[in-house]
Amino acid sequence: MIQNKMRFVIVSMLLLFFTSGLNAQNKSFELVSEKQTAKIIIDKKDAKVVEIAAEILSEDVFKVSGTKLTIEHKLANGAIIAGTIGKNKIIDRLITEKKLDVSAIQNNWESYTIQVVANLSKDVKNALVIVGSDRRGTAFGLLEISRMIGVSPWEWWADVTPDKKQELLLRIENNKYGSPSVKYRGIFLNDEDWGLQRWAALNYEPETGDIGPKTYAKVFELLLRLRANTIWPAMHSCTKPFYYYPENKQVADDYAIVVGTSHCEPMLCNINAEWDSKTMGEWRYDNNSETIKDLFSKRTKEVSKFESIYTMGMRGEHDSPMIVGEDDSDAQVKLLENVVLDQREILQNKTGKKANELPQIFIPYKEVLTYYQKDMHVPEDISLVWTDDNYGYIRQLSNPEEQKRSGGAGVYYHTSYWGRPHDYLWLNSTNPVLMWEEMNKAYEFQARDVWVLNCGDIKPHEYNIELFLDMAWDMSSFDKSAGVKSHMENWAAREFGAKNSSAITDLMYEYYRLAFQRRPEFMAWSQVEPVTKEGETELTQIHYGDEVGQRIEEYQKLINETKRIGKNITYNRKDAYYELVSYPVNGAANLNHKWLYSYKNQFAANQGRSSAELFGKKSIEAFKSIQKETAYFNNDLQNGKWNHIMSMSPRHLPVFSKPSVSVPMGDSQAELGLALESYEMELNHEVINSYADVLPVFNAYTKSEYFVDVFLKGKGDVEWKAEAKADWINISQESGSVNNSNQEQRLWVSIDWNKVPKGDNKKEAPLGHDYQLIPPSYKVNSAIDFVTVDTTITIGVSVFNPKFKELENWKGFVEDKGFISINAENFTGKTDGKQAKWETIEGLGYSGNVIAALPRTAAIQMDEKAILTNSPAVEYEFYTFNFGSADVFLQAVPAHAVNNGKGVRCAIAIDDTKPVIVDFQTFGRSDDWMQNVLRNASIQSVKQVVNKAGKHTLKVWMLDPGVMIDQILIDLGGWKNSYAFPKESKL
Fold this sequence. Notes:
CATH topology of the largest domain: TIM Barrel
Shape: globular
Oligomer: single chain
CATH class of the largest domain: Alpha Beta
Helix content: 25-40%
Pfam family, one: GH115_C
Distance between the termini: 62 Å
Keywords: Hydrolase, Signal
GO molecular function: hydrolase activity
InterPro entries: GH115, GH115_C, GH115_sf, Hex-like_dom2
Strand order of the largest sheet: 11-10-9-16-15-14-13-12
Structural class: alpha/beta
Number of strands: 37
CATH architecture of the largest domain: Alpha-Beta Barrel
Mean pLDDT: 92
Organism: Paralabilibaculum antarcticum
């Protein structure tokens, strides 16, 4: 019996979030046991949200144990007493009697404490007391108990069905939670046209036919569970305005959710739907201000009794620039200043409060940022809410003077976006480490008053929503990038069990790494505004192991791993796994496969390969798989609970369309075709036994391997053999056949370096820039014959296999085919600066790690002397076999300068030359910026000279703190076109 009871004990460690222990020992409290079932005691005069949170907790306990807690108003033994200081008589009496210490939370914002208190009265020997400093603090405290008994915040929104337990025993340490790191924390429901609105209107809330009070109640419950307090409601024209339904504002207040609005919705007014130009005139403040002020006044009066955040200023209709009578920036700035002054006067008149007593925000978004940068005056009690560039990179943050503003600052951040250069509305493809890096930067620059996440339809964005709001709740848990991985592991353990947490975290990190290289929605190489047809991919199929083929394999591994892990997920979490892991991973993989196989189809058809048909078939299969999975999500999952929530083609853009298929010309007799790595066309079969067709040089120092494609041309069956003319040549497959059912095989050629003869061991390195023209004394040559019944085709194999004493036991980077490729985190030396140092950010970048110059508040280094003496530096030792002019390419994460007018710069030099400045900053919505955000990379190059063959050192110094270097390529003339830099050439 004792063992049976222990099996159902929940031990709450309470290690997350703001905690400051009161040096008390853990105390136990029986929530549900054979001895007692706790009651929840609240005060009728407390806020409505306290009652709502108590009801949620009662339901959660029922879902776990099958026992529902009653909600009462009189003190009882074994009770959970929950209330707000000054709003609950029992708690206020306990404070007066000094039986309850609330000094750590009193008068704080959204703070709470959970304590086991003994001997409350003669009849009450034991009680669990939850005290909130305000109404939300109390609600958060009640829902903390839900977390402790194993109920996920996503229990309803992602169907994370709780594990069943017969008894619930809590281990409580008297802890203080809060105040939160960020005062106002929430989400923006946006671009809801294809998911949330249709789901609400056609499925969840058909009686309203819209996103109405019933839907918002579930959204607000989620926000409470995630310790959030702010909503920017849905505002597209497909959805009626939030205030169209009077119940909406009351439901928000009942749940203690603060309502705000986006950058294009001034003064809580939805201009998309609430402004009728036919009856109200133009949306122009220069010639129609009285009508506009009337709209502002009515809304302010309507919401004056509710908690709100007022967006100040204005933009044009439908997320466009404001129209003014004069095409003059000074006039635009002056007009916008007048708008704000008039709005503040309205606030005072309609609320009876001074403007500086009301939460207000000014959002310098798009063109409004330009106005602000032109010295627009914004009253200092208004919070400056900085924005990202819609693709995850914050454009500007408060400078030291702005950080002194009484209104503080905040951030409006996107993980979903509709617009130029391309939408990403379907899946959550924003790397969580990037989001951490940008929000950590914002926090460092004192943006701590308002954080709002544009999360689209909620459903594809569950993890990033929780990460965003957990950071806003307690940023101290995220001082390093490793905090994100720990957070994800804890999240995965909570949702899917500890035994699966590491595997799921690794899976999702790879999912986000691949999406960072190129979001799934960007794989058609098309753009919007205007919408263009699919373009030609920048991924190479002929160089560096075939980038298209490699990406296909990487995504196939994700599909396989998702399926493998899924077999280990318990039955009650299967649907949650599908929603949170399986659907997004498989969706991203199949959208990639659709386009990648389409590119292979076109490439193969151009070469006359019969396999073009196979690749076309695989592309269409990937498209059909997306259709099938989306139909299951909408129609079958949870018996249709989510019908209409998921669209596989928002806006019906070309990237989501069914692929077209190319076929090779003609229907000729069967023939063997060969294609070598680095050759765009297949081999010329007319030249027999020729060394003209040769694989790239195999380098002993980089252990190169290259592919040969053996394929069928025409119809029929061709048997083949691959005969190496030297025993040191390894071929992954030495014989086979190509036929109508097996049209293509990829062979990998490698070298047995223990058998290959050594080249000339001269001390001097060979000259020349063309790696194929290395003097013969340094190369060992042989060949492979591909033999069919009537043809022999010979390809050359050339091996660079010297033995330089300088490279014995040397750890560095080495030239390979005329270039040196480096992952920035693998520096060979490092020097810290006086105020900053280079640190590795884990989980970001093409290789999975980048280096960043931190802290971001360090002084900028301006002149050469300061660079050499004060600036942190990293060094990369490398070895070349050639010398001469070199292009040094640096790939950085395309972040922006945090303060207006400063750059995103580093300096580089090879050996002891003068440092050369590299700047990654872009301005506005330029072509450079568009390409950067499409590929999540800013690539710049500078000229350098490698003055001799042999050892060298590349140094990289910080100029601007916060610059993040991903990869480096030193090109001596050998780099061929590719999307990503070639794999690292490390010895």
